[in-house]
Write a structure and sequence with these properties.
Radius of gyration: 24 Å
Strand order of the largest sheet: 1-2
Largest sheet: 2 strands, antiparallel
Distance between the termini: 26 Å
Number of strands: 4
Shape: globular
Strand content: under 5%
Structural class: mainly alpha
Mean pLDDT: 87
Amino acid sequence: MRVGSRWLASPALGFVAVMVGGPMAVIIWYSLRTRGPGGVGVGDGLTTDAYERLAVSENFTGDIGFDPTYLQVMWSSILLAAVTMLVALVIGFPTAVWISNRPRHLQPLLILAVTIPFWTSMLVRTYAWIVILRETGPLASALDAIAVDAPQMLNTRGATLIGMAYTFLPFMILPIYAAAERFDHRIAEAGLDLGATPGVVLRRIVWPSVRPGVIAGCLLVFIPAIGAFLQPELLGGGRSLMIANLIQQQFGASRNWPFGSALAILLLVVVGTVLVTARRAAQGAQVVLS
């Protein structure tokens, strides 16, 4: 980077340092403090008790041992975010490729249809799914009309997955479309004309061209999904506890700010690990292709 460009970038870098680095520094500082008087806020002492509590607990007899409860919540959040990412990929990949293969004048309208949900609040969209999935909702009524007993849909882990997949699906479609839109589909047609099967064309021709968009889409879905709060709270009814809900409980009802901060740092570490792993995988893929 040239000296001039550094000066031009300094306002943006300073803004990021203050608006991102500042809150992170506060959270790290809170995680190393004791609980405040009466269990509210933070105290004056320094301790690592909040981090130890992530995997260690003390029973009624005073014995200290390994407690996987909070790590299990973290692992459950990772699994649900991964499943959400896979569902979004299964739906979003063919959708994005199909849109990129439509006539040029139709593509903006189809992308507009994908982005329309962003015009309303995520809270409103989540409440709409509550109406759809509740026992007296249209989905249950449709099943009753065909003499099918409607299962319990609301306040389940499945409802949480549906809400998260619906919410984050556009984040998968848009980057894949951006990559597929630059792909020359005549190359795929030529492969089919030369005798290649659709699977071979998809694997050897289409996939390498859209892989950067797929990686970007997976990250854009997985990262916000792992920290999702509204869908587990409203659609899951608290039965599918995720790390974001646990953090909210610690800063809210439990008033344990140091432990809530330690949970937030754990979430940041997991997200950072995912980003570093994805970057190395992308670099490795570029080396193989070159």
